[in-house]
Design a protein that fits this description.
Blueprint (H helix, E strand, L loop, with lengths): L6 H10 L2 H12 L8 H17 L4 H15 L3 H4 L12 E6 L2 E8 L2 E4 L2 E3 L2 H9 L5 H4 L10
Antiparallel strand pairs: 1-2, 2-3, 3-4
InterPro entries: DUF2924
Protein name: DUF2924 family protein
């Protein structure tokens, strides 16, 4: 005798649910208000949560292994662990910016940046050294738009 598994149908229904329905499911499944992220994010997190509740979550040894891997990446520094890995350019990347006819090359290092042979913790410090004024370093080097995207 086989029983029908309702989970695939619930997952498929996420694609046709309205955003309001997704948010209502979020409240039910997470017992919290949904984050202000896009629909695709809500769908993926809800799909994971539905399966987690139905089939069980990660095994404790898997959780421990992931935590160890994370600590290897951030050295156990809680501040670093909250920074998205994809926000920082890859180590070795060269950022090039021309300012008043002079080309400035910044190299991304494992613990910050290097400009003119000196280490810096932030791009803003480099932008300030180049221009003599306060700049958002990410904007100055073209890694972030001046205006927030809506």
């Amino acid at each position: 005798m086989t029983t029908h598994d309702p989970i695939p149908a619930r997952l498929a229904a996420l694609k046709t649910a309205t955003t309001q329905e997704l948010k209502a499911q979020w409240r039910d499944l997470f017992d919290s208000e949904p984050p202000p992220f896009n629909r695709r994010y809500l769908e993926s997190r809800l799909a994971y949560r539905i399966q987690e509740l139905a089939y069980g979550g990660l095994k404790p040894e898997t959780i421990r292994r992931l935590e160890r891997l994370g600590e290897d990446l951030d050295g156990g520094d809680r501040k670093k662990s909250r920074i998205r890995a994809d926000t920082m350019p890859i180590t070795g990347t060269r950022l090039i910016r021309e300012w008043q006819g002079v080309e400035h090359v910044v190299t991304v290092t494992s613990d910050g940046f290097e400009w003119q042979g000196r280490p810096y913790k932030s791009l803003s410090a480099i932008a300030r050294a180049i221009t003599g004024t306060h700049w958002n370093g990410w904007v100055f080097f073209g890694l972030k738009n001046r205006r927030a995207r809506t």
